[in-house]
């Protein structure tokens, strides 16, 4: 199976005044195409920092992060933005939808940044919303949707540019348990369709849906 993500000897520290604060230590990880992996660990274990590095929102202090065949640790900010836009789909706990835009326009947004023609954008956004059971909600703004519907819009948006990796950060954290289960069923279907998914969660029950669990503790991989 093709490796879509390779993390090699990655450490990350932040500078606070004169202090150097280490957050991640010597992380080594390879993720194959089609894997559904949970990243778990207590608060402060480095989960969010690792997700930010994988998502090209930050750079490692040392080591390499290779997405596809690109070593992201040596790319310019512009090149990182292109990788983010084309290779990675983000799904957040708080949905992060644009409140003034309709569901359709929210899903179109990542395609706007990739200069995809308008007609093509609209067609794809409609197909994705239909696929996620929101074909009758395309003109609704986020405030007119339930939490579960908003997360479905967010998933559709994450899929817009056919990313290689879906990054989900506590995707059911703001949902009731019934709606959370429905969202996890969507992730399971995407996984069965061959999508590569990395999900940060503190919920052991959710992690059982994954075929791999990576546990972090004190900035190190404790168990994989």
TrEMBL record:
<keyword id="KW-0067">ATP-binding</keyword>
<dbReference type="InterPro" id="IPR027417">
    <property type="entry name" value="P-loop_NTPase"/>
</dbReference>
<dbReference type="InterPro" id="IPR003439">
    <property type="entry name" value="ABC_transporter-like_ATP-bd"/>
</dbReference>
<dbReference type="Pfam" id="PF00005">
    <property type="entry name" value="ABC_tran"/>
</dbReference>
<dbReference type="GO" id="GO:0005524">
    <property type="term" value="F:ATP binding"/>
</dbReference>
<dbReference type="InterPro" id="IPR003593">
    <property type="entry name" value="AAA+_ATPase"/>
</dbReference>
<feature type="domain" description="ABC transporter">
    <location>
        <begin position="5"/>
        <end position="224"/>
    </location>
</feature>
<protein>
    <submittedName>
        <fullName>ABC-type antimicrobial peptide transport system, ATPase component</fullName>
    </submittedName>
</protein>
<dbReference type="InterPro" id="IPR015854">
    <property type="entry name" value="ABC_transpr_LolD-like"/>
</dbReference>
<dbReference type="InterPro" id="IPR017911">
    <property type="entry name" value="MacB-like_ATP-bd"/>
</dbReference>
<keyword id="KW-0813">Transport</keyword>
<dbReference type="GO" id="GO:0022857">
    <property type="term" value="F:transmembrane transporter activity"/>
</dbReference>
<dbReference type="GO" id="GO:0098796">
    <property type="term" value="C:membrane protein complex"/>
</dbReference>
<dbReference type="GO" id="GO:0005886">
    <property type="term" value="C:plasma membrane"/>
</dbReference>
<dbReference type="InterPro" id="IPR017871">
    <property type="entry name" value="ABC_transporter-like_CS"/>
</dbReference>
<dbReference type="GO" id="GO:0016887">
    <property type="term" value="F:ATP hydrolysis activity"/>
</dbReference>
<keyword id="KW-0547">Nucleotide-binding</keyword>
